[in-house]
Amino acid sequence: MTFLTPLLAGIAAAIAIPSLIILYFLKLRRRDLEVSTTLLWKKAIQDLQANAPFQKLRRNILLLLQLLALCAALFAIAQPEFRADTTVGKRSIILVDRSASMQATDGDKDKPEAKLARLDDAKKEALKFVDSLREPGIFEERGDEAMLIVFDTAAEVRQNFTSDKNMLKSAINAIEPSDAPSSIEQAFKLAKAYTGTQKFEDQVQENKGFVPAGPGAIIHLFSDGRLPDAEKVNTALEDTVVYHAIGRADSTNIGIVGLQATRAFNDPNKLSIFVGLQNTAREARKVDVQMAIDEVIQRVSTVTVPQAIPPQDTVVPVAAPKPKPADASDGTPAKTAEPVPEWKPGVGGVVFTIDRVEGGVVTIKLINNDDDALAADDLAYLVFPPAKRLAVALVTEGSLFLRIALEGLDLSKFKVMKPPEFQQLLDEGKTGEYDVIVLDGWLPKVKPENGKGDAVPGLPPGRVLAMNVAPASAGIIDEGEGERSLIVDFKREHPALKNAALDLLDIVKSRKVHLAPDAPSEAIAQTQDGPAIIETTDVRTHAIVVPFNAVETNWPLDPGYVLFLAGSLTYLSDSGGAGPIVRPGQTLSSRLPQGATDAKLTLPSRDRLDLSPAADGSVAYGPIRKTGIYTVTWTGPATPTDEVSDDGRARRHVAANLLDPEESDIGTRPVLAMAREVVQAKEGGSANLSRKLWPWLLLGALAVVMLEWFVYNKRVHI
Q: Which of 214, 359, 380 has the alpha carbon at shortest distance from 289?
């Protein structure tokens, strides 16, 4: 129990209690009266004795009752509060993490053998919290209000602010698990949107923008702490964050964190499947990795995954003050990280190599993995197209380096032609025999898609690798020759760039370009002056554009140049070792051929949904929540990599996998490092609850006063 104003109560007690006792020491002043009998003298003497000052007080129930009422009133002035096991405020926000790691079966700390999922334990703790909310009572018209937000990569409000406990409990019980990774930043932004904002009008503070205003909310976070973006969360000064840690810090898991398939460029029939594994156990563990194609088991390999790395070289955040970050909007100090033990997972893997011409769906499954706490990362999928050797046309006036590099690739057909020859093929509609067209320093004249208007230089329909050009039709604005430049950033996992050695590229004469706001293009490599390599996609064309001249760089002398050409051709032709992979939390999107109708999507649960293709044939669904194979079917033409079922419908598979090392590292974190503070997990998932006692003390004092009045009147009438 704590007191908010003990000094005020002490001063009042020092005055009131002695004053009450002194009243019982006062002597009554009586008048002299003549009486007709001596029978009344005895009673008069007793009254005089009772009222004589400085005599020992007799037992007096009235005095005791009055002292009791006075003490109750004085305690009420001190404003005592009782601290229970949960922090409750006028308004609370409940954040429940439903990401993949919350499916780990170590949620019940008291009964580990029960295999309770973390999400179920989080829901149980959240329900307890709702039960502890203060309801409307005698002294308050309204009870405590709370709202519910659930999140994984995205966040959504499941219940707005309400004091109805049944509505909150129903929303909590309806939370379903997700296979998506976790991200807390959007959840906090959504929470702050419901607590009000204030805009500074003073121009001196114009750079501070919008900051939270009004009474702060108590934010209760039910999570295992596997939140990679927690440091981006900037809580307001008036906010209180209570972290209810779910799960155990020593939970172990072996999961699939990487999956890739490639076909040898010189031997497309040879398919290699790479499986990356991660182990969080303190010792090396063996696991059986099963590989199946089209649900037929092909190989099973036993893999020993190394133990987790000891914690001497790793850190996690603990409370330690440091100067506030530059983006903080007030003067409050922030917290930083100091070394404390945290194990880093061990990594391993296996490679399956098979000869297969046909395409198919690969399923990778970890078996004999019974001690594993998380099953969501024990299964992964991959779609690969049929083997194919490419037919490529090079349109050039005579680039020696480019021609030699392409001739060295194992292509089914390679033809070098002059621009007039290709222009004639394009006008006659005979370019379809080539999988990829390589343009070197020249653009053909292409008619608009609607067929109206004159032909203008641009990218032709199909799959195109354009070198030393900047096509305006792709929304690329050419600003002329630039200065010497280097690649400062690029998408390292892009199939065309991952082996291109762009870190070593020195561009002697660059090309200054930028993308129009509405361009159907994306820069996949950047110099200090702007885009260096661009990927563009529209209704008719999928292209990779390199605006600068490779001859005026050191690139052709590096093996990365040939690897870039091979990767670009494979990527553009969809003949690589694996089809598209999406992750839960992302949107599944695909572009269907022109003329596709009656499109449908089959989910891993076997449910079917109708899709409506856009004008360019693209369809989208999401964000997806579960891993597995998603199948798009339609009536109409199919691409060479699509399947055609017996009923004549085209079919395309898309794999959805977790493949997230952070999410597979399931050990619960004891602290959360946020932008301005480090939040320590509450033991047992609970915090403190403040209950005001002064209204009840005043009510008790009133009851005692009424009892004293009853006793006094009863004695008078005796």
A: 380
b/e burial code for range 392-419 (CB count within 10 A of at least 16 → b) = bbbbbeebeebbebbeebebeebebeeb
Tokens for 140? 């308050």
Query: Rounded CA gap, 444 and 460, in Å?
Result: 7
State pLDDT tens for residues 119-163: 999 999 999 999 888 776 555 556 788 999 999 999 999 999 898
Edge to edge, the sheet with strand 346-355 lists: 254-264, 267-279, 346-355
| Residues 6+ away with beta carbon under 8 Å from 60 | 24
- How far out from the chain centre does Cα 663 lie? 11
Task: State whether the Cα torsion 414-417-422-428 is positive or negative.
Answer: negative
How far apart are alpha carbons 333 and 56 in whole angstroms?
Answer: 62
Q: Which residues in the chain land under pLDDT 70? A: 1-4, 20-63, 65, 79, 81-89, 109-114, 136-142, 196-216, 236-238, 312-341, 449-451, 576-577, 616, 683-697, 708-709, 712-718
Instruction: Give tens-digit pLDDT for 287-337.
Output: 999 999 999 999 999 999 999 988 764 444 544 443 444 343 344 444 444
Structure-token pair, residue 434: 């080539």
pTM (global) more than 0.85: no
Strands (E), 265-345: 267-279, 285-293, 296-305, 316-322, 334-338
Q: List the structure tokens of 37.
A: 């009998």
Give, for 260, the enclosing helix (H) or strand (E): strand 254-264
Beta carbons of 61 and 711 less than 8 angstroms apart: yes
Beta bridge partners of 288: 302, 367
Q: Give the sign of the dihedral formed by CA 660, CA 662, CA 665, CA 669.
A: negative
Within 13 A of 31's CA, how many CA atoms are on the CB side?
3
d(CA 596, CA 613) in angstroms, rounded, equals 8
**Which of 384, 360, 351, 374 is CA-nearest to residue 581?**
384
Residues 6+ apart with CB under 8 A from 581: 259, 382, 654, 655, 656, 657, 659
Count of Cβ atoms closer than 10 Å to residue 34 Cβ? 4
Tokens of 578: 């694996």
Distance of alpha carbon 635 from alpha carbon 649, whole angstroms: 5
